[in-house]
């Protein structure tokens, strides 16, 4: 339950991304700057945190020992995640991007067979947790209900350009996160891992920034300020909270799916945020029903996670009694 609470709290800070990316797009800011500036602003904050915790040397050693894997999975987890999200924001409003992003709930569950758990001398390929997939599908139905009213008024090409990049991001984020947990194998804390992934993804962000400079010119002061807010709120606070939650349950696919499903609450925060900050009207009744379905899905995930924890504790007690 603590991990699910952390996931929901992270979602609240993640929601800032969708609201401000839409706001920057409305102001005429380039998505290239929105993407790269976030990670440039994340870097100094993370450096201060890791340095204060005396964690730079272990991080440097880890990155030197497996540079190719750090570069690959940081690119997947950060660049293939965030660049498509900001690109999609230039074609669709925040509700469309954040709503489609919830596909990551199902994507995360479907990725399970790509990972292998070592038990003793045996390597066991992880299986898709069927119950978690079914519960995540309930949440996905709620997301679709939210999309229906607005999708009817959006041109088809806008829908495609606003949806396809986000589906790529929806697979890339949990894949990069899980693979980096596998690479680190508990040797680094969350702050070190996020900083390492930020550093390893910097070459891509620098290239995007250079391209933006020559094609769109310098970013406006408003875009720089809003990117700073996104960098701190979403890039540092939300990412660290979410990674802490997933780290704690990384060995249990069912619990991991439950934590990743908390991202569905981003839609609720985005709807509220856009209503307050961008004067977006209250969703229609069908969308409100969708919100209710999402809440039900989250409650089911919470109940299932509690059930898994109780079963695990019961097995541990039984094993102790046998010994």
UniProtKB/TrEMBL annotation:
Keywords assigned by UniProt, alphabetized: Membrane, Transmembrane, Transmembrane helix
Residues passing through the membrane, by range: 31-50, 70-89, 95-116, 128-148, 154-173, 194-218, 224-245, 257-280, 286-303
Keyword Membrane among UniProt keywords: yes
InterPro entries listed in its UniProt record: EmrE (IPR032713)
Pfam families: EmrE
Record has Transmembrane helix as a keyword: yes
Protein name per the record: Membrane protein
